[in-house]
């Protein structure tokens, strides 16, 4: 079978929305994968450092997941939540126990957007308020309600909203009015900002929704303990804390299984949302909450596709593999090595402003050389140069000026070193291109 990627691109543009963006000047059609590698329609092989936007968490074509999906598909593909589902109950039991939330209940969705949407529904209903606090530079999804709590202009197509959203400082450590402060002073300043912000509300705010590490925002994060300090203020007012773990969950940060555990001094969040990695490519998300919050809805509700037997089978197999092979530990060890290699390379490059992150969740912020000005152009050039060298990475951050590095958690030391060298070469080339153009 022959593949004409150019023709497919033209067909894509003819039937898909103009805002459905594609990477690369000549977009890729990925046809298959194995482990940490994928192949395109022309047969080119790539080391995958983005994993379908942090979704291929364990590995491409993981046999254990493929087997579980195939066996479940051979029995029954779909039933809906109107019937008892053993795989759904089993996965909910595992996630409830792992969540750290007492008396936890789990509701499954088909995406992180839908999980955050459900969390906002629960929090605003429980608190009888449409006021929500969110973080600047945040991203929580593409639905009407999640766009309304997204503090990132690049991903906010409308200002219309069912919610009143107020944005708090703290998600971006190295930029903004508090960037020059030490960590303790930074946390104190952000807490003071939160307390001041609460004076601008009508009282009775529903919740704070926050990503422990901002994903689309360029893998930015506050100092450890910020959300614990926020929790102290929120608890006094009865305001709920929603931890958006769509990108940080399941051990990706290496140091913790959940991102909120870096901010655990005042207990777990009231609600936790998850998606992406748990399905290893299957459409699987959900929200975990204390029973009193989860059970606050007075009207009937079901999910046609949330908790589907086939996605639950995939999630169970994937979670078992993750825990049995200590992929959190691998993310900590190999991710630590990778970030060290990248920082060594970046030390001599003016185009790199900062390398940040933890585990296998690493951001590289790029600037116009000789300035502190974010450079989306540099990020695009590196993306293309890396692809030419057989490496796939992602983009994000302010204006799309940061690279996002998030390989599957089974990444080996050899693959980390290879990827670091390919990326180093792409960064050096980009710096030369920008210098020649200036």
Itemize the secondary structure elements and their pairings.
Layout: H1 5-15, E1 30-34, E2 37-40, E3 45-48, H2 51-54, H3 63-75, H4 86-99, E4 104-109, H5 112-127, E5 131-135, H6 144-147, E6 164-168, H7 183-198, E7 207-210, H8 226-237, E8 240-244, E9 271-274, E10 285-290, H9 291-294, H10 309-324, H11 327-346, E11 352-358, E12 361-366, H12 376-388, E13 391-392, E14 394-396, E15 402-405, H13 413-437
Parallel strand pairs: 3-13, 5-6, 5-7, 7-8, 8-9
Antiparallel strand pairs: 1-2, 2-3, 4-10, 9-10, 11-12, 12-15, 14-15
Helix pairs in contact: 3-10, 4-10, 7-8, 11-13, 12-13
Quick summary:
With 438 residues, the protein is α/β, with parallel strands linked by helices.
Task: Please explain how this structure is put together.
With 438 residues, the chain is an alpha/beta fold. The protein has helices at 5-15, 51-54, 63-75, 86-99, 112-127, 144-147, 183-198, 226-237, 291-294, 309-324, 327-346, 376-388, 413-437, and strands spanning 30-34, 37-40, 45-48, 104-109, 131-135, 164-168, 207-210, 240-244, 271-274, 285-290, 352-358, 361-366, 391-392, 394-396, 402-405. The protein has a 7-stranded mixed β-sheet, with helices on both faces. It has a 4-stranded mixed β-sheet with strand order 1-2-3-13. The radius of gyration is 21 Å and the shape is globular. The model has no long low-confidence stretch (mean pLDDT 96).
